[in-house]
Amino acid sequence: MTYNTAAVDYDTTSVDFWSYAATETVQRLGLSAGQSVLDVACGPGPAALAAAQQVGAQGTVLGVDIAEEMIALARGHAAETGASQAEFVVGSMDALDVGADRFDAATCVFGIFFASDVRASIAAMRDAVRPGGQVAVTSLGPKFFSPLYGQFIEAALAEHPGLDVDVPWHRTEDAEVMRAHLEAAGLEQVEVVHEVSALPLQTPQDWWRIATGTGIRRLIMELEPSAAERVQEQNMAWIREQNIDHVELGVIYCRGIVAG
């Protein structure tokens, strides 16, 4: 399973952009001490741990992810930070089974595009939240990892012209499509914000770490090892030639209220 084999790389990369977007997502909820939060497709736990800080020792946080290795990493981070109020369990967003009307808020950061049925998964999150609570879904926007993602695709297709480059987040990169998903899932007062920020690259190698620690890894794995190495070398050379010191990160932050 790609999620398991990539877990450590995802964890390393999350320091850069996943943690940033996760913290932003949680801050937009305005959580209070003592509240309970569900984090779906939690990965190594950046959003869940950000929520744990907000709700404090009297609150509770439940992180759910399909990959056992991701859950193990999240538990480790919780132990490191003393977030004993955060629990992590293996589970799928396609069959979410955490109880109804149990949480004050639910989050899903950079995971909803992996759902078999996006609207059904958002509706399941809604069902887990009490009336008046909030559901926050954060996705990659249309301008992500620019300009390096485009350069990666160009180099990868040169090596493998038949490569399927339709990555999952293309399903949810349109802000209005996301708004429609949340509204169709039964959420009210839906807010959708698309923001683009700069993610610094300290070295050219930072880009390849991002590529192997995100869904782009799937494309790399479909290349022959020697071809993947050539793509990496081409990307590194292009970064140096163009003096690239950052990539643009487009993020769509969505939030809705559960009807009372």
Automatic annotation (TrEMBL):
| Single GO MF descriptor | methyltransferase activity
Documented EC number(s): 2.1.1.-
Q: InterPro entries attached here? A: SAM-dependent_MTases_sf (IPR029063), UbiE/COQ5_MeTrFase (IPR004033)
Q: Which domain of life is it from?
A: Bacteria
Q: Which UniProt keywords apply?
A: Methyltransferase, S-adenosyl-L-methionine, Transferase
Gene Ontology annotations of biological process type: methylation
One Pfam family it belongs to:
Ubie_methyltran
Signal peptide (from-to): none
> What is the name of the protein in this document?
Class I SAM-dependent methyltransferase
Q: Does the keyword Hydrolase apply?
A: no
Enzyme class, one word? transferase
Q: Which organism is it from?
A: Pseudonocardia tropica
